[in-house]
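Readers of this paper often ask what the protein records in our data store actually look like. The remainder of this section carries one protein's record, kept here as part of the documentation.

:::
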Amino acid sequence: MTEPDFSVSDPFGGFGPQQLLRCYADGVFPMGETRDDPRIFLVEPDQRGVIPLDRFHIPTRLRRTVRSEPFVVRVDTAFADVLDACAATGTGREDTWINGPIRRLYLELFAGGHAHCIECWRDERLVGGLYGVTLGGAFFGESMFSRERDASKVALVHLVARLKLGGWTLLDTQFLTGHLAQFGAVETPQAAYLKRLKSALKVRPDPTALTRPLGGADTVTYALQDTTQASNTGC
């Protein structure tokens, strides 16, 4: 990973939502050093994590879980709550990179329609989810959380199903982790990633696909379907 090449201590001073979108388009993304550090660093990894949508994999047990619909899945109804849950500390995660300025930036992106979240609910409690940024045909996954078993995994399967239905072509995970590898995530050199990103930014997906209601069985079907088939089905 290259060293961060930019920082700003003022929440928006010269670096607001539009500048952040430009960073995504240029292949870099923001992170904070710690939750209490107000600075924002722009990061450009040498190796980029991506989930190839045409090779998305769902483990067998998780397929059964998604089909059984253990959670009520909603989209964009509690973005701030998802963001705060992703920023919360917990066992094995004593600190996080989502600081105050980053939180404000993503709330602005959400208000402008460029950030979205997938939420898993049980008994009207938010128990898992994820959020990210969309620009052209690229979705930049930012963070996820889980308060119940498989909740964040179910959210990811629902996200991929909707991305395929809407015609997105790139799912960026920033880094490769063991957790994401089980879904088919791979590393790609930054130079190759930038070429894929350039192509994805030219795509105009159907934004209504993100909020389309989907049952568990359909979600698994669309998430595993060929990307061309899935987008045609959604038309």
